[in-house]
Amino acid sequence: xxxxxxxxxxxxxxxxxxxxxxxxxxxxxxxxxxxxxxxxxxxxxxxxxxxxxxxxxxxxxxxxxxxxxxxxxxxxxxxxxxxxxxxxxxxxxxxxxxxxxxxxxxxxxxxxxxxxxxxxxxxxxxxxxxxxxxxxxxxxxxxxxxxxxxxxxxxxxxxxxxxxxxxxxxxxxxxxxxxxxxxxxxxxxxxxxxxxxxxxxxxxxxxxxxxxxxxxxxxxxxxxxxxxxxxxxxxxxxxxxxxxxxxxxxxxxxxxxxxxxxxxxxxxxxxxxxxxxxxxxxxxxxxxxxxxxxxxxxxxxxxxxxxxxxxxxxxxxxxxxxxxxxxxxxxxxxxxxxxxxxxxxxxxxxxxxxxxxxxxxxxxxxxxxxxxxxxxxxxxxxxxxxxxxxxxxxxxxxxxxxxxxxxxxxxxxxxxxxxxxxxxxxxxxxxxxxxxxxxxxxxxxxxxxxxxxxxxxxxxxxxxxxxxxxxxx
Length: 473
Description:
The chain has 473 residues and is an alpha+beta fold. The protein has helices at 3-10, 13-25, 28-38, 49-60, 67-77, 84-92, 96-111, 188-198, 215-221, 302-310, 313-324, 336-364, 373-390, 393-400, 407-418, 451-455, and strands at residues 129-137, 159-165, 171-177, 204-208, 227-231, 238-240, 247-250, 256-264, 273-280, 288-292, 443-444, 461-462. Strand 7 and strand 8 (256-264) form a beta hairpin.
């Protein structure tokens, strides 16, 4: 590389860190192994799986850019040895098993260079690897396929059941169904099985919403020595144990709770399970009712379980960030297989930014959740855009090959590159509760007025909307 390109790479540390991590988790030899294990009936020809992954990465890392233009640019530069149509054809046929294996194995490789720390669980739950899980429909499918062009209404791509590691916030695995209207519960067994393979040596705690509170799922989630913490739903009957007196207390937020013990399911149901129920009172709102297989209230205090359940909201934020920040609203392909693979790649990009965020938090000695993923990713994409404009693909590969790729060496490089790097705009704004009463709604008489008159109080208001209204231009 010339001195100019080297100087560009030195001045773009966020882009360097992102490319370094992406290069580490998508190394060609590693991707070949993933493809061999999860390819199903698919095959490689001119477009190999590593090349396919790198081309998709190039399209997704250019925010608000056209994937078609990115593919055409690769074709013009000679890095795509086939037609753009052939690349789209490969994308639309990616097996669901390959998408699942791609996220699970690249994220496991990312864990080897993930900085220490994360957000710890409450003290009584430190021995567990805790996971939250939830379903996600893939929306915003472009109606490019011929059978979709005349259809009006929302069409869905695939359906995912995603598992998130609570301490690191990483999306570690998902189970997929090509039918976006599929139910969540049938996908739980597949996602749980993947996670158990990835985390085989430690007890696991599964945290889920009320949708998963049924006797089939509680049996599935408590297998292999695991435990569950679920929000209770009334359709599963709870029968208190008359020999176990209830207990009361207050959680870490000062909310009063009552805990009692009993059975989920009737006495005639062989799936019946003995559980602990925790009812948390919220002034002015419905109580939150949790059920758990962690029966020992002294070893696992209700306050700790309440705090752990609140962390389940992290998977909702994960879905929102992946959709809005990592551009899952603009799907490249229209087949279910294409939508699932793009989702897997967006989850991987989310995980990479989580790693960059945690390295910055470590250097700044602050908690990772105080850093805004959205603002950080915007700066990452700005640096990636500058990098791609000024540095060629060949020069980027030469730059990345300049540093060895062992996990320890990658960690050392990232710590050195990101040390002292900080912008105040990356700090996440504190959540504020709304204390003021909502502004009362009033309607303009006649249905219209001017800003000039409203600012001077020369308009007339009515508590009811104008009858008939006015047609919009």
